[in-house]
Amino acid sequence: MPSARLWAALPRELAVHFRPRVDPLVRAILREVRPAVPEYRQQPEGVAVRQAITRCLDTVGAPAAVAQEAWKTVFRDLGRAEYDAGRDLSRLQSAYRVGGRVAWRHVREFGRASDVRADVLYICAEAIFAFVDEISALSIEGYTAAMTHATDTLASRRRRLVDLLVADQPVAPHTIAERAASARWPVPDLVTVVAVEPGADDHEFVPSGLPAEVLVDLVRAQPCLITPERHLRGLAARLPGRRLAVGPATRIADVPRSLSLARRTLALVRRGVLPDRPVSHCAEHLGTLWLLGDEFLAREIRARSLRPFDGLKPAQRRRLGETLLVWLRTRGSVLATAKELKVHPQTVRYRVHQLTELFGDRLDNADDRLNLQIALRADVLLDR
């Protein structure tokens, strides 16, 4: 359902009582958007933010406002501006999401202070996030229109196709098919996305010898390739001096998710968490990517599950943690643990006795054992 219909279903007096909060809400959104999206720190005072809030308030309890279209130009123009600035839409979409969260927080606080019924607040929440989706779609329209009017070469068409494929906002299959045909790119059933480490000469560098089925965009801030899997071999040689991270093979609709994993893999390689290789494959590190997908959560799990270690000296904690992880992985086999750790079985028995004193019955509980394995693995990764 369009957001305007949701706003129109709300009581008109809500908008009347909320209007004095517009200026504080604009300031709050700008305060949170600018740190989240550094490129917008120097932007003028939030004209578009105020336009968005005003549009929503004008529509509350006013079905006649649903058909008005002029406000959409503002958000199409924002999409055009991103293209003209040489950026993809990820920053603008991130700003929209942050703004939506801040707006909902303010509306929720207003609702509680004004004794607004819970079912009315639910409609407000749905309307806010539907509106965020709508303005994102409008900016994609503007961005796409700006690309269409840009220099119409095959290379630019292919870069525009990459922009569509990696956009967070879903794109209709027929739109992708049209753009792919224009870019002379046969759409495969599955593609592989490769995140490329940026290089200083990306604007001048053109990799040679790549098949026509490989889409390349090294100009963007986070360069990438999109290719059928059969063309992966030899990519590193054509991109010398750059690390590559290969995402899971995926359908076209899931390209942004695969690219996100590839970029996270590349970031973990640069941090030293993953081995430093010219080409890293996400499929070999799915457990690590999952575990460090939310590092705050991983640290919480580690802190809570391994609390019995808190009073130990670092060296003793390391030895016992290492022993416990291997012992759990080998299903409590003393001999297998001793072999992997290259210590005497009696040493393992002594350490297991210490661990039993520290953790007690938790070592016999399946759920606790699983949490301990996750926490110990996180401990190793985070310490890197």
Automatic annotation (TrEMBL):
Matching InterPro entries: CdaR-like_regulators, PucR-like_N, PucR_C-HTH_dom, PucR_C-HTH_sf
Domain PucR C-terminal helix-turn-helix: from-to ranges: 321-378
Segments forming domain PucR-like N-terminal: 7-166
Signal sequence interval, chain numbering: none
One Pfam family, short name: HTH_30
Transmembrane segments: none
Top-level taxon of the source organism: Bacteria
Protein name as annotated: Uncharacterized protein
